[in-house]
């Protein structure tokens, strides 16, 4: 049973790292699930501090994933229409059957939202959409770094308990 939990945890870690770039997959959540599965083995003693802190970080970053692109739009001069457009575009882009919809969606949503707000000012709409795109890139980078940290923690714990796991 420990081998199965270890394997499932490792798979969750790999998929979590991939999911840090693909919004369709909940990358950080899968990485945390991988840690949880590792701690559910009989060999690895459970550490509530590590699980609690990593869960809190996972929840905070998961919420920020939706806020950061909207804040990027606002920072680059976007209105609330652009912010809402970014959020709607992100959701539509995830489910749209187009390549890179999760990147195009927030950009197009912010652009369209700003054009609804002021259809004459295309430069402002483009600037707000660029802010949305930069926010998305920043969010993806934070996700990737956190998943790599979780994966490193996973590997460290496995290495420390290798005698009982293998």
Automatic annotation (TrEMBL):
One family name in Pfam for this protein: DUF456
Top-rank taxon, per record: Bacteria
Keywords, alphabetical: Membrane, Transmembrane, Transmembrane helix
Alphabetized InterPro entries for the sequence: DUF456 (IPR007403)
Transmembrane residue ranges: 6-39, 46-68, 88-112, 133-159
Protein name: DUF456 domain-containing protein
Native organism taxonomy: Bacteria, Pseudomonadati, Bacteroidota, Flavobacteriia, Flavobacteriales
């Amino acid at each position: 049973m420990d081998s199965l939990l270890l394997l499932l945890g490792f798979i969750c870690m790999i998929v979590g790292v991939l999911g840090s770039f693909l919004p369709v997959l909940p990358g950080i959540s899968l990485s945390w699930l991988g840690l949880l599965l590792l701690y559910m083995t009989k060999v690895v003693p459970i550490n509530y501090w590590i699980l609690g802190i990593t869960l809190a970080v996972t929840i905070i970053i998961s919420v920020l994933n939706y806020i950061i692109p909207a804040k990027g739009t606002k920072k680059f001069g976007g209105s609330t229409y652009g912010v809402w457009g970014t959020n709607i575009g992100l959701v539509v882009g995830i489910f749209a059957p187009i390549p890179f919809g999760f990147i195009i969606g927030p950009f197009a949503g912010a652009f369209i939202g700003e054009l609804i707000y002021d259809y004459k000012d295309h430069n402002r709409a483009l600037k707000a959409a660029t802010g949305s795109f930069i926010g998305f890139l920043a969010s993806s980078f934070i996700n990737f770094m956190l998943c790599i940290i979780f994966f490193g923690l996973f590997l460290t714990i496995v290495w420390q308990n290798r005698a009982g796991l293998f």
